[in-house]
Design brief:
Number of helices of chain B: 0
Radius of gyration of chain A: 13 Å
Largest interface: A-B, 26 and 27 residues
Oligomer: heterodimer
Order of helices and strands of chain A: EEEEEEEEEEE
Order of helices and strands of chain B: EEEEEEEEE
Distance between the termini of chain B: 38 Å
Strand content of chain A: over 45%
Helix content of chain A: under 10%
Shape of chain B: globular
């Protein structure tokens, strides 16, 4: 069966520090991968999606970047965090031919 | 991608049937309609998908009129645990990968 792992669950980082959030998927191959951010009380904002290794599409110009070094690994990064980067970050995967997506447990990031 | 419009919030009482309608006037011929449920501090969870007419599973029903410009998610006999945000998504199936873009969703509050 397929599983998605996302870590860490919570993170408190100072402004200006770097960020690296990792997401891995097991039990599947060539999934579409997604990074979302959700501010408190708001909807999900699509940040990046990837259809394959090294292929990243950015939805919103911002302080973040994403990489997909392996088929089932998706990494969200920042060189210098801003206060506005605080939020709930979610990773998701799906097959391109299916409408059902599966989400990780999320990372609660607080930038102080 | 077709834009979706949903009510911001709805209240209901335990045991009632709840219908949440989503408008998607610009839906394309090949687009599917999918609904997700999200609890606080969790990732969204797939509920149901459909293309036309009616689809039913163990959780909900999805009604889609002939013109497909709207859809209605029906939750039978809701309980307090159905309190969540419900998202309607349209148009992410194709021969190649598509985005998975969530709108603002509908906050359903089930009251005792």
């Amino acid at each position: 069966s397929q599983t998605i792992h996302q870590w860490p669950a919570t993170l408190v980082q100072p402004v200006g520090s770097p960020l690296s959030l990792e997401c891995t998927v097991e039990g599947t191959s060539n999934p579409n991968l997604y990074w979302y951010r959700q501010a408190a009380g708001r909807g999900l904002q699509l940040l990046f999606y990837s259809v394959g290794i090294g292929q990243i599409s950015s939805e919103v110009p911002q302080n973040l970047s994403a990489s997909r070094p392996q088929d089932r690994q998706f990494i969200l990064s920042s060189k210098k965090l801003l206060l506005s980067d605080s939020g709930f970050y979610l990773c998701a995967w799906r097959y391109s031919y299916n409408t059902e997506a599966f989400f990780g447990q999320g990372t609660r990031l607080t930038v102080v | 991608l077709a834009k979706t419009t949903q009510p911001i919030s709805m209240d209901s009482y335990e045991g009632q049937e709840v219908n949440i309608t989503c408008s998607h006037n610009n839906i394309a011929t090949n687009d599917y309609i999918t609904w997700y449920q999200q609890f606080p501090s969790q990732g969204p969870r797939f509920i149901i998908q459909g293309y036309k007419t009616k689809v039913t599973n163990e959780v909900a029903s999805l009604f889609i009129p002939a013109d497909r410009k709207s859809s209605t998610l029906s939750l039978p006999r809701v309980s307090l645990s159905d309190t969540a945000v419900y998202y309607c998504l349209v148009g992410f199936l194709s021969g190649s990968a598509r985005q998975l873009t969530f709108g603002s969703g509908t906050q359903l509050t089930v009251l005792p």
